[in-house]
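Q: Got a minute? One more chain.
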Amino acid sequence: MATAKLRLDKRIKANGQYNVKIAVYHKDRKKFYATKIDLSLSDFDQIQKVLKGESRLRKDSDKVRKKDLLEERLHEAQSICENLGNRFSYFKFNELYTDSKDKADSLEVLFDQYISDKKSKGKIGTAVSYNNAKQSILSYSPNASINDVTISFLEKYKSYMETSGKSRTTIGIYLRSLRAIYNEAVRHSLVNEVDYPFGKGKFTIPAPKGRKMALEAEELVKLWEYEPISEAEKRARDFFWISYYANGINFKDLILLRESNLLRGEIVFKREKIKDSDPKLIHVEVTEELEALINSNRVRRIGKDPLVFDIIDESDSLEDQNKKLRQFIKTTNKYLKRIGENLELSIPITTYTARHSYASVAQRQGISIGEISEALGHSSIKTTSTYLNGFAKEQRRRNARKTADFKSLAQ
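A: Always. Here it is, folded:
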């Protein structure tokens, strides 16, 4: 049976106090429901003792009012848990609890529903990203509803993140997540479309500053010729080049490759990120270089259709797969960074550098943007264009230098 207790949210608020929450525990899950009561640590401890009969409060004090309200809410939550018994579910609890923050228009519940949907579809990475955005937004405005999301709200939240030291990229990710939640609310008629706060003439989500993410051809040669000084460096370098030669394959798609994806001299797969919205197959020609790299790192396993690489195990849950993927990328980036520093490359190398470098080299070799987009598995050419902006900027610089050097033509 579920149980309910008072808990203090340890995130300090602007008033120097902490919000008291009703914590509802059921099996191995717990969910917190905000109250309208903020208390200091000492006042919370005192009220807890009063509720246990270990202390008393002075009559007519503000603490008495807060204690009474908290006692009322706690008793209500406990009664709901008892009455539901074995039929308990958070959905049923939310329908019955007076101060439930899981109302239909609550940002918290809208995010939770979206996150739950992504988890059920196996999109654990997306769920983690949206949960990070949710936590950030709730730390700014714990009880916000979708109708609170106005142009002013967005501007203030953006300033809050900037003050908190969040990068421009992170700010953009969180705000795009919030926009996606708003779009869902519009679709379900939870908010009026005429109040839509995003877009031209309204609130514009800041785009990440243009930065070089691809290696120059000369740098790629240096990386190819680099002799690793440890097995860890070799593994990191090998997977960088597997990604590059496999049309810049995303590392999640890479570690999920199965033997059945290697078919008659090709790698054939669907992108995990967009397989539901765009389930088309991506075909990668396996060159001699790619085949050698794959064979050097593949693990031969017994089974109906085993994984090619040993980054995750068949028995792993989706959550464990996501954790192992993130750790693998983190470790790979660590050693790629060391290699880049040893070679004195112009940018820090990451797993994503392989994808951008592939796109950049493809364009320099005269491959059309449509073909590059198809090879990368992008759902639109517009997305591919953002990959190639850095190259275009570098090309403009070269052209500007050439036209500025008119004196050389007169010699």
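A: The chain is about 55% helix and 10% strand.
Q: Perfect, thanks.
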